Amino acid sequence: MRVAIAGAGLAGLTCAKYLADQGHTPIIFEARNVLGGKIAAWKDEDGDWYETGLHIFFGAYPNMLQLFQELGIQDRLQWKSHSMIFNQPEEPGTYSRFDFPDLPAPINGVAAILKNNDMLTIPEKISFGIGLIPAMLRGQKYVEECDSMSWSEWLRTQNIPERVNDEVFIAMSKALNFINPDEISSTVLLTALNRFLQEKNGSKMAFLDGAPPERLCQPIVEHIKSLGGEVHMNSPLRKINLNEDSSVKSFTISSTDSGVTEEITADAYVSALPVDLFKLLIPKGWESIDSFRKLDGLRGVPVINIHMWFDKKLTDIDHLLFSRSPLLSVYADMSITCKEYEDPKRSMLELVFAPAKDWIHRKDEDIIEATMKELEKLFPTHFTGENKTNLRKYKVVKTPLSVYKSVPGCQKLRPDQETCISNFFLAGDYTMQRYLASMEGAVLSGKLCADKVNKSKARLLESKKQDVLKPDQ
Ligand SMILES: Cc1cc2nc3c(=O)[nH]c(=O)nc-3n(C[C@H](O)[C@H](O)[C@H](O)COP(=O)(O)OP(=O)(O)OC[C@H]3O[C@@H](n4cnc5c(N)ncnc54)[C@H](O)[C@@H]3O)c2cc1C
Questions:
Q1: Ligand 1 atom closest to Cα of 435?
Q2: C-beta 402 within 6 A of ligand 1
Q3: Is 429 in the pocket of ligand 1 (CB under 6 A)?
Q4: Does 2-39+210-299+406-472 match 303-399 in CATH topology?
Q5: Which of 273, 319, 426 to mutate to test the pocket of ligand 1 (most atoms within 8 A of CB)?
Q6: Using CB atoms within 10 A as the burial measure, which of 120, 171, 172, 428 is most buried?
Q7: Which residue's C-alpha comes closest to atom 47 of ligand 1?
Q8: In tens digits, what is the pLDDT along the chain, a chain of 473 residues?
Q9: Is the CB of residue 211 below 6 angstroms from any atom belonging to ligand 1?
Q10: Whose CA is nearest to atom 15 of ligand 1?
Q11: Considering the domain 303-399 in this protein, what is its CATH number?
């Protein structure tokens, strides 16, 4: 079957890869000149990479890890020690670590928490442990029910002290969805904790060894092409055209290179667009359909990714760091953590600035100035004195509508990959799968979408045959 897919983010690429593996011919149309969507990256005038986001791969990403295996690129993941490292705001320049010993889950997680005495007191650890019992005993059903509450509300219902939030979960909530615990759905944190505590290597982290478009997306494209698929860049989907029965008749694709607009027909059609952009293309004839109407409740959250190149080394930590700063979320010295960005003498910090709603429209210079003030607290000895570290250059990448904002009540709004339109399917991290808005979620959504297209093969081919037999309308 010929399947037209709009969007070459991880969801669209994965969907095409698995369709091609099943003998179909996927044809991807990507609006931009860069692969990867939210994992896209570019080179600056000096040849240094800058990215849409600092991206971490977790041990609890089975579909992503399988994809790396299948592409034969698993050596491109640079695994770090099994730890979580937090800055200590009250003692600037120091860190507090959760180190997971090489023991089965959940013993390794419990040991990591018990051994850390900087952040939580024993009574706080006990009350948090008791609070988690329902999630551990009742599993995913309980986790889904908790989507009615924000994480802060959930902590209160479990009688867990507010300080636990301040110490650990503001940082985790910002890392997972770029918002604070008062806003984030408790389902998000409980899902992550469940994976981290139930799988031995669930919270183990890896960095890709270079820029995602080249090191991860390109191999997927080569695989797709080797099986007869096509990937067209600079080719945005402009319109979804419908048949009388509301099924898709064609995609209108316009090339931003040649200016040519074409009607593309296929046996099945997939939107792998972000939810905010898909909503703009929903045809009039579908607007009353419940599953499409519900998408109004899903909206991307703003986030800013910052790159700062310094003239000296700021740290020797080869890991992700949770800043616990009011303006920043996680950060890493990419000159250490990522092979292609390696610099033995000078640091390049990549930092996620979140929550970003009050900053997304501010000038880059203001954002950098505010970030420098935060860095002076994180590295108190580096930015003073005669031998102080200087900022060489910076790059700020703003994403006003990034992953959907996971506030309470979102779970019931997320659509299935199969829609009520017979030849139209959805892929994307916002569609329903258990890994929420993440790279693993995007990959799983693409895989589920490909399976659903494949399973509908007989129906799709039959309706195509009927279309051909119909006289011209
Ligand atoms: C700052 C930041 C940090 C992140 N950190 C992590 C992390 O550490 N770990 C993790 O797991 N996840 C992380 N994520 C989330 C992760 O990047 C996303 O969940 C995932 O990449 C989404 O993939 P997707 O394919 O669903 O959507 P997208 O990546 O948004 O792909 C959609 C594609 O559709 C294209 N498109 C849009 N309009 C059209 C059109 N009209 N026609 C054709 N194509 C179109 C876009 O250009 C894009 O290529 C982070 C995200 C951000 C922004």
A1: 11
A2: yes
A3: yes
A4: no
A5: 273
A6: 428
A7: 37
A8: 999 999 999 999 999 999 999 999 999 999 999 999 999 999 999 999 999 999 999 999 999 999 999 999 999 999 999 999 999 999 999 999 999 999 999 999 999 999 998 999 999 999 998 998 888 888 889 999 999 999 999 999 999 999 999 899 999 999 999 999 999 999 999 999 999 888 999 999 999 999 999 999 999 999 999 999 999 999 999 999 999 999 999 999 999 999 999 999 999 999 999 999 999 999 999 999 999 999 999 999 999 999 999 999 999 999 999 999 999 999 999 999 999 999 999 999 999 999 999 999 999 999 999 999 999 999 999 999 989 999 999 999 999 999 999 999 999 999 999 999 999 999 999 999 999 999 999 999 999 999 999 999 888 887 777 766 665 54
A9: no
A10: 438
A11: 3.90.660.10
> Which of 439, 440, 449 has most ligand 1 atoms within 8 Å of CB, for mutation?
439
Q: Ligand 1 centroid to 442 CA: how many Å? A: 8
Give the position, in ligand 1's atom list, of the atom nearest the Cα of 402.
Answer: 53
Q: Which residue's CA is minimally distant from atom 14 of ligand 1?
A: 438
Minimum CA distance residue for ligand 1 atom 6: 55
Top CATH class of 2-39+210-299+406-472 equals alpha beta
Closest atom of ligand 1 to 238 CA is: 41
Which of 55, 65, 172, 233, when mutated, tests ligand 1's pocket best, judged by the most ligand atoms within 8 Å of its CB? 55
The domain spans of the chain are 2-39+210-299+406-472, 99-202, 303-399
Distance 461 CA to ligand 1 centre (A): 31
